[in-house]
Fold:
Amino acid sequence: MVTPAQPDNGQISGNVLFYSKPEPLSNETHARVGLRRIDRPFAFAAGAQAVPLTVTEFPVAALSYPIIFAGERRQPLAVMGVTGDANMFVLPNGYFDVGVYVPAYIRRYPFVLANDPARDQMVVCIDRGAPMVGDLPDLPFFDPAGQPTDYTKNCIQFCNDYETEIRRTESFVSLLMEMDLFDTRKATYTPTNPDGTQGATQEVAEFFGVSEDKLKALPDDKVRALLDNGALGQIYAHITSLAGWDRLINMAVARQNGGQAANVN
Structure:
C-alpha cells in the first residue's frame, strides 16, 4: 500500500511524544476516517517543551529556538519552553506565533512511520487519539475504492522524507561524537529582586552542545571534511541558536512576573 520506514524511536507506542493511540493505517479500519479541520490545530503541541529536530532544519529553526542535544544518542531538540509543561510559542488560539518555525516532527502529526516486528517491515500509522482525526472528515484517508487519497499519499511521502532526514541526522550526530565535539552546557538566569538587586542564579537546563574550543582544536583535514559535507554550517547554526536561551527565558520570566526581565548566562 505504501512505502514504509522507521520512526524516531523504533516501534511506536503510547509514550512517544504526542502519539496516544497509534494504529496502522488500513483501508478496512479507516475507510471512513480522515482529517477534520478543527479549531486550535496545534494545541496538541502546547505542552511540549522540546521536540526532535533534524539536522537540515537547523538553519531555519535557529531563528526561533535554542537547538540542543540530549541523552546518550545526543538527540537534537528544538527547545520551546522552560517552565512546567509550556510551549512558549503556541498561542491560546492553538496556532504557532507568527514567524515561528514549526518543526517537521510537529507538521507530520498525526501520521508516523513505525516498525512492525511481527512482519519485519515498516508501516504507516496514525494517532487515532488525535483531535483532528475522526469520522465525517474534510480530508479522507481513503477514496471510495479503498485507495489512499492524494492527501494521504502526500502525508506518507512527507513521512518518508522525514525518515531520510532522521538517518542523515543520525550520521551527523555520529560524526560529532566520533570527533568528540560535545561538552555539557547549562542555561541559567539571574532574577532581579523587587528592590532592584540581583537574586541567586538559577539553573534552567543542562544539555549537550558543540564546544567551540574543541571545534577550533580540530586538525585542518577534519575541519575541511566538516566543511565539505555541510556539517560545519549546521554546527554553527546550532551554536548561534544558543543565544535564543536569552529570549526564551525572558519570555518565561515576563509571563510569570508581569514583564520583569532576567539576566541570562
Remarks:
- Confidence is low (pLDDT under 50) at residues 1-14, 260-265.
- The first helix runs from residue 58 to 61.
- The first strand starts at residue 22 and ends at 24.
- The CA atoms of residues 10 and 248 lie 31 Å apart.
